[in-house]
Amino acid sequence: MVVLSFVAVILLGTFLLSLPAASRSGQGMRVIDAFLTATSAACVTGLTVVDTGTHFSLLGQLVILGCIQVGGLGLMTFTTIFLLATGRRMAITDRIAIQDSFLHSPSGKMGPLVWYIIKATLFTEVLGALILAAWWLRTGVYENWPDALYSGIFHSVSAFCNAGFGLFPDNVMRFQGDAVVLGTLSALIVAGGLGFLVGLDVKSYVEQKWFQSLWTEPRREQVAAIRPRPRLSLHSKFVLTVSAALLVVGAVSYYLLERNGLFREMGHAEALLNSWFCSVTARTAGFNSIDYAKMGGPALLCTMVLMFIGASPGSCGGGVKTSTFGILVTYAVFRWRGHEAPHAFRRSIPQDSVDRATSVVIAGVAVVILASSFLMATEARSTVAEESQAKFLSLMFETFSGFGTVGLSMGITPKLTDAGKFILSVLMFLGRVGPLTVAFAIGARNRGSRYKYAEENVMVG
Fold first, then answer.
1. How far is Cα 230 from Cα 252, in angstroms, rounded to an integer?
2. Which helix (H) or strand (E) holds 38?
3. Separation in Å, CA 102 to CA 6, 73, 95, 121, 331
4. CA triplet 36, 39, 43: central angle to 5 degrees?
């Protein structure tokens, strides 16, 4: 259902973007370029072959915005809304699939979750749009409210959905020293990247800990029956801890690595601001306040690592997810110390979660290796060794960006061949839908073995 739904959205977006009315010039966009743009929008990536603000008409921009919103919220959410609105009963397999996307433990009540997602998304996007529109009107970026509000809505939705599409030719590089713009975009990106479950869990924790006196007695009894005392779930603690650590480590790394490079002409405050924004946007957002083509090798490697890890489960972002990374790090530390069962925050981590995390990372590494190999074959097979080596870093960076649905680029996207654009589109699709979802959709069901062979050790290390 997920795979076919995303394919349907991408094909519809491709058709609409290829229409003459979708371009300012009145000429239809090439199908492969429209396909890559629609895939990038539906998979909330941000990689484009043309400038969104100057090439596309209002219709084309609205099509992109619609694909971003659908892809950011997830088609499972919209399917759930449709099922609940029409009164249809969901099959057990459908309910489990939805729970696996948004919940860390089984729950029979999907309605409150869906309405929370809708309200939280609209509230956050509207608030971000108003802040950006008011600030751009005040600073003279736009001269009237309609233009400022439209641009604010577009960038707010794009930031919250971690898409990275912008209406300015230089993305957000003109706002390098604007703390309001970069701060607002950062807040929207983080909110969209934490995941709907974490937001709901934090909301319930805060209400139960500090505002439960405002509740009615039936409400207090209902919550107490489910959760006797205020506490965050292990999933939320993992996501918040790993996300905070990655944001801080990333910001410090960018500052130290590029202080004498890209940030050498900036003051300390502006350099710290852009280091923070680079750390935030590298984890699946795609907005850029600096030119990544001029970034040094160590900082590019840092960016690729952050892009591969990505956002959190049930969020608008891609990558292998923060909780996956946190589980594997915890498991490795405990194995190195000689413990068999890993635990965190006074809770044991199930072996099933460790197995899933390992499978996701292995699948992600395999996809990145295959995609980069195919791109090198299509883009650098007829070049001399020196030129091929020069393209290697840009193509590898593009591969990590596509798989993590980030959208950052070193400027090579418009120069790709048609075969390279198709490979990149497939890569973005796999990065958004997820290796496990694709494997579940095309693979056979697990079959229990009727027998077991004798064990024999294999040397490791």
1. 33
2. helix 31-42
3. 18, 11, 11, 14, 23
4. 140
Structure tokens that stand for 366 in this block: 């395999």
Crossing angle for the helix pair 196-210 and 179-194, to the nearest 10 degrees = 90
Q: How many helices (H) and strands (E) does the chain have?
A: 19, 2
- Minimal CA–CA distance to 379: which of 411, 412, 416? 416
> What residue ranges in 206-260 does DSSP mark as E strands?
none
Three-class DSSP category at 448: coil
Closest to 280 in 3D by CA, of 123, 434, 162: 162
What confidence tier does 365 reach under pLDDT thresholds 50, 70, 90?
very high
* Statement: residue 20 has pLDDT above 80: yes
Partners of 343 in beta bridges: 348
Prediction pTM value: 0.88
Please name every residue paired with 23 in a beta bridge, in sequence order, or none if there are none.
56
| Ramachandran assignment for 74, one of left (phi > 0), alpha (psi -120 to 50 degrees), beta (any other) | left
Longest dimension (CA), the chain: 76
Residue 348 pairs in a beta bridge with 343
What's the pLDDT tens digit per position in 33-45? 999 999 999 988 8
Among the residues of 259-350, which ranges form H helices? 268-281, 297-309, 322-336
Confidence band, pLDDT 50/70/90 cuts, at residue 80: low
Residue 199's contacts (CB-CB under 8 Å, 6 or more residues apart) are: 116, 120, 191
